[in-house]
Design goal:
Blueprint (H helix, E strand, L loop, with lengths): L6 E6 L9 H18 L3 E4 L13 H11 L4 E8 L5 H14 L4 E6 L6 H7 L9 H13 L24 E6 L2 H10 L3 E3 L1 H4 L4 H11 L11 E10 L2 H19 L17 H12 L2 E4 H15 L3 E5 L5 H14 L3
Parallel strand pairs: 1-2, 1-9, 2-3, 3-4, 4-5, 5-6, 6-7, 7-8, 7-9
Helix pairs in contact: 1-2, 1-12, 2-3, 3-5, 6-8, 9-10, 11-12
Protein name: Luciferase-like monooxygenase
Family: To bacterial alkanal monooxygenase alpha and beta chains.
InterPro entries: Bact_Lucif_Oxidored (IPR050766), CmoO-like (IPR019949), Luciferase-like_dom (IPR011251), Luciferase-like_sf (IPR036661)
Length: 336
């Protein structure tokens, strides 16, 4: 059987590079969306993080509004909105406005994780009582986003999220890095995106299998639809990719020790200890980094193993130009 053509999409987190102002990371995200649209990528998703010294993307709904007016074709979405911080109605209204700006191009990816530490989550919403009520939040969000009437007896049955449209509505995606999100996506009949880059692929196959086996066709989707978000870096040569990867390895090692900060340039990294060198080599060995051909082969193999026709690529580098070039090389490899 012929493997279907693999669709490539983008996840960008507005990462901060040492020596560059944080606000530049937001402008770089806008520029990258325009660049990857021209290259032929299918979606451009952005993340939500708070009080994070490495990631400036704290308000996806605001940034998506800018992307909506700066792009023309590419689908735009959140990966994701951390729903327990907010009311479902407020999120539905925000994304209905976004759909009015870019009709038929908006994806609303939602997740349960805080995207921050516990203290910051409390600061975001000191009165938050949604954390244990996530499934009900998702149910309400789906009704409001799609202009569906709430169930009989619902407290907010008479409330509508505006502006409504007869032509389109945002596509709601369930995000996750464990079985929980897979089960919820299957229950509601939603598309599902697994955060491969968070777990380094651990649990991906199990979650996707669980999702597909338990999927219930819905008003939103008739058959299971899933993708993986994968960290990847392509360069002209494997040696060049290794050079730029060391920044990512240094960040991962530091993060695992409780230290967060801007991404350092490869030539400015503090020395690796012997144990850290072993750790960095292990990270490289399991990464989707290398020459463009090497990365493309790994992504095709991953997609085939998991039965996917879409991979979402997240790339971190200290250099804006190296990141943009990575997306160019992969677009060429996959004939976008």
């Amino acid at each position: 059987m012929t493997q279907p053509k693999l669709t490539l999409s983008v996840l960008d987190q507005s990462t901060v590079s040492h020596g560059t102002p944080e606000d530049q990371a937001i402008r770089d995200t806008v520029s990258l969306a325009q660049h990857t649209e021209a290259l032929g990528y299918s979606r451009f998703w952005i993340a939500e993080h708070h009080n994070h010294a490495s990631i400036a993307g704290s308000s996806p709904e605001v940034l998506l509004a800018a992307l909506a007016v700066k792009t023309e074709r590419i689908r735009l979405g959140s990966a994701g909105v951390m729903l327990p911080h907010y009311s479902a109605l407020h999120v539905a209204e925000q994304f209905r406005v976004l759909d009015a700006l870019a009709p038929g191009r908006i994806d609303l990816g939602v997740g349960r994780a805080p995207g921050s530490d516990g203290r910051t989550a409390h600061a975001l919403n000191p009165h938050n009582d949604h954390a244990d009520n996530f499934p009900a939040q998702v149910r309400d969000l789906l009704h409001w986003v799609n202009g569906l009437e709430m169930p009989e007896g619902h407290s907010f049955r008479s409330v509508t999220a505006h502006p409504m449209s007869e032509a389109s509505a945002p596509d709601v995606w369930m995000l996750g890095s464990s079985d929980y999100g897979a089960q919820l996506a299957a229950h509601f009949g939603l598309p599902y995106s697994f955060a491969h880059f968070i777990t380094d692929g651990r649990g991906a196959g199990q979650a996707l299998d669980l999702y597909r086996r338990n999927f219930k066709p819905s008003f939103f989707l008739k058959e299971p639809k899933a993708n993986l978000c994968v960290w990847a870096l392509a360069a002209e040569t494997e040696d060049e990719a290794r050079h730029w990867f060391r920044s990512r390895a240094r960040w991962r090692i530091d993060r695992n020790r409780g230290r967060l900060g801007p991404l350092l340039a490869p030539d400015d990294l503090p020395p690796f200890s012997r144990d850290e060198e072993v750790e960095a080599e292990n990270l490289w060995a399991q990464s989707y980094a290398g020459s463009a051909a090497q990365v493309a082969d790994k992504l095709r193999k991953l997609a085939q193993e998991q039965g996917l026709d879409e991979i979402v690529i997240l790339t971190w580098t200290h250099s804006r130009e190296v990141k943009r070039r990575s997306y160019e090389l992969l677009a060429a490899e996959f004939g976008l």
